[in-house]
Amino acid sequence: MATAVNAVHGVSNAALLATYKTRFEELATTERKKDDLIQELLQQNERLATLLERFEDDLEREKNYARMSQKEIRDLKIQNNTAEDKLMSYPYIQVLIDGDGMMFNLDLLRKKKEGGSEAAALLLQDIRETVRARREDLCIKGDFDIRALVFANLEGLSKTLVKANLLNPGDLQQFFIGFTQRLEHVNFIDVGYGKEMADSKIRGEFLFHLKDPRCRLILFGGSHDNGYAPFLKTCTATSPDYPIWLLEGPPTAREITAMNLPSYRFDRIFSKESQNEMTSGAGNSPPTPPAVLTPTSNGTLNMQAGGGGGSNGSGSSDYRFSYASAAVAPSPITLARPASIKYNTSPTMESAKTITISGNGTTIAPRGVQHSMVPSADAERVNYIKNLNPRACNNFYLKGSCYQQPCQYSHKYKLSPEDVRTLKYIIERSKPCQQYRKKGFCDDEKCYYGHQCPFKSKYEAATDRPCSNVHCRFCAGDEQMMGY
């Protein structure tokens, strides 16, 4: 009876208590998991709230930055438009003339100061008419300025024309005074004596205006001289879209003609004849009876020798005179030499001496040449030689002859003795002699390659050790030299 009282549905109290305890523990576990979940959610919410606040700050900062950037962009656009308007408002055409080779017509020169003023006015008039026809190609919307520079050796040119009986003393000086005084941007510059003076001035002005965005066109009056061809090729290669036109006077040089640059001829201003054509009949011909110069209707001059007997059988011979340069005749190719380098004439060779090789105390026949190295070279001159284009032919300048025909390198540079030494200095420090590497000696007295490592320290040279440069061409093993 007691057992029945303590049981419910046939389950004892002990079993019920165990069941209730188990269920309670399960509920407690669930509650703990619920609390953990709530705690985790609260922590996650706190992290997200922090991130949200950070993102909101970042967003606000980016908004401010975007507003500032947009303002800066608007300001820059305004500045750019203003700059473009200024560039478009002040375009100019630059005219560069080599006055030692491209001469003004004789009738203008003989008018002296008045002729110079007339020549300046005609030059600007013809250029303006020519440019207006192609203003769209040159990005010129409105008006434009024309600036002209003529470079020449005034004294030398005047003496030549006076000696040729083409002008009187002082006429040319008066002409260029009138030419310069006519307009503010038209000038003559007397470069004085010096073979390259006009060339170097023109090159300098050419490069300056080539970089000026306001300069829409360069008109070059020097196409008669082949010496300008390498320079013009460099300009057209580095600035292929920049317009460069030629002003024709004497016949255009062959290399410049091959460049196919636009060319224009102003016959009423410039002569078609070269300096040699001008002076050959006047000052360099054999003695003849006094000649009389008479003008003709087409602007040429007939020179009628006194006493009859012309080449045409009529007692006269016709010469057409131009006002070409008073400079010397064209020379071999030269490049602008640094001002600190003095010019000399003929190349020289490094001296070499024969040595003997001793074995067991006996003298053996000479087996090689001891080549002395050029100890030093001026950095400016090294840069000058390295930048020659085309490169100077090593065989021609260092050995005295070249067996390659045709040779891809130049034989036309006038290298001074110091230039030749510098050329050897460069080569013997960059290219080792292969015969010396293979045989241990070199029997070529004129060999210009390196026969010793120029980079060794005194200790390395004394101990016959290789230099510290692992890639040295002079100290590397034969297997490394195969790819040289």
TrEMBL record:
Record keywords, A-Z: Coiled coil
Domain Tandem CCCH zinc finger: start-end pairs: 427-474
Domain DUF7923: 90-270
Coiled-coil zones: 27-86
Biased composition regions of type Polar residues, renumbered to the chain: 276-285, 294-303
InterPro entries, per database record: DUF7923 (IPR057683), Znf-CCCH_tandem (IPR057654)
Stretch list, region Disordered: 275-314
The name this protein goes by in its record: C3H1-type domain-containing protein
Organism in which the protein naturally occurs: Orbilia brochopaga
